[in-house]
Backbone:
């Protein structure tokens, strides 16, 4: 800003000086010419006076011309210096912001300062991943692994993220445990930081795309259980993080023996109801992490309850919006609410016949009144 102000001041000074000198020289020349013409001097005298006038005007214009030329030399120099300094300060500010965000993310992911320092040192160490697979068939420390994986995700380090996961799988940890206890908490942290404007768009894009790659690779390691003879239709919100979370849940449900269909987000309510009528699933699973998805979920459930087309179908909801707003699931008419994939798998087994008492009571009252 100082260079910018100096450049503007020099330009203004040059323009003002040039205009002032030119005006003074022109006025003096005109006055001398007028006085000379009014006298009765000879033609040679008048020519001499005009020559003196021109010399005087030239002496006045020389300083202005010098300043004018100086401005052409100094102006670009100040412009180059200004551009270089601004670029340097901008790069340094961006680097500082990235380091600050990384420290905040590490503080959020770790419960203590000592663990943050250890995680930072482990990330910088080239032999970091040897600490993970020190012993075969041992339970890895998911807290430290989460910090290592998180740093690779937000920086776009695909190779580093794969190296971390290869070390985790080398310990013999089941892929289902990795998805539930590692990928899911990391995704929740990424979503929370981005929603709070504590993560840049670039870091969020890096994290979600690398995590999707890791989730796809992890799904191939799942152990498929015998079929449970239960069909589930699943839909979710439209953003990248919600679809990734829905994919993780769908993969876990399929490996656990459920017949799952997952269409992602952006499907109209009439198409969903048509699909439900054709497939007749045992449960409808709706995943939403953003507050703007709540009206869509409410509208869909209201239409299903209103027409009573699927009286035996269980409606299950999950996602960040229902975790942040206790009681919202019951209010919009859902039968079951799950806070995580592990909680969902447990409730599908323990609460297969759970229904929303408010809707059941209201429906019974309506039928009695009729």
Residues:
């Amino acid at each position: 800003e100082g260079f910018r102000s100096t450049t503007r001041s020099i330009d203004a000074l040059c323009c003002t000086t040039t205009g002032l000198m030119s005006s003074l020289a022109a006025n003096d020349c005109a006055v001398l010419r007028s006085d000379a013409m009014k006298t009765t001097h000879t033609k040679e005298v008048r020519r001499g006076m005009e020559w003196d006038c021109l010399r005087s005007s030239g002496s006045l214009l020389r300083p202005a011309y010098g300043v004018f030329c100086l401005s052409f030399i100094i102006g670009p120099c100040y412009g180059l210096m200004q551009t270089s300094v601004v670029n340097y300060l901008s790069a340094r500010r961006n680097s500082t912001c990235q380091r600050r965000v990384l420290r905040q993310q590490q503080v959020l992911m770790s419960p203590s300062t000592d663990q943050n320092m250890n995680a930072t040192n482990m990330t910088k160490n080239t032999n970091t991943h040897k600490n993970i697979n020190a012993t075969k068939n041992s339970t890895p420390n998911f807290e430290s692994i989460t910090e290592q994986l998180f740093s690779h995700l937000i920086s776009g380090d695909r190779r580093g993220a794969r190296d971390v996961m290869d070390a985790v799988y080398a310990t013999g940890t089941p892929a289902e445990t990795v998805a539930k206890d590692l990928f899911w908490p990391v995704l929740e942290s990424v979503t929370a930081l981005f929603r709070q404007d504590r993560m840049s768009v670039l870091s969020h894009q890096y994290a979600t795309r690398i995590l999707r790659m890791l989730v796809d690779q992890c799904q191939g390691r799942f152990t498929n259980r015998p079929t449970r003879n239960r069909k589930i239709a699943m839909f979710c919100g439209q953003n990248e993080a919600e679809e990734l979370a829905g994919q993780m849940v769908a993969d876990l449900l399929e490996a656990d023996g459920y017949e799952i269909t997952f269409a992602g987000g952006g499907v109209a309510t009439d198409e969903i109801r048509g699909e439900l009528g054709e497939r007749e699933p045992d449960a409808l699973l709706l995943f939403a992490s953003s507050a703007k998805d709540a009206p869509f979920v409410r509208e869909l459930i209201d239409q299903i309850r209103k027409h009573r087309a699927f009286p035996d179908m269980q409606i299950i909801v999950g996602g960040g919006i229902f975790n942040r707003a206790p009681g919202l699931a019951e209010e919009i008419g859902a039968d079951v609410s799950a806070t995580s994939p592990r909680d969902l798998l447990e409730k599908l087994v323990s609460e297969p016949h759970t229904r929303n008492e408010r809707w059941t009571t209201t429906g019974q009252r309506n039928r009695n009144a009729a």
Summary: The first helix runs from residue 2 to 38. The mean pLDDT is 75. The first strand starts at residue 231 and ends at 236. The radius of gyration is 37 Å.
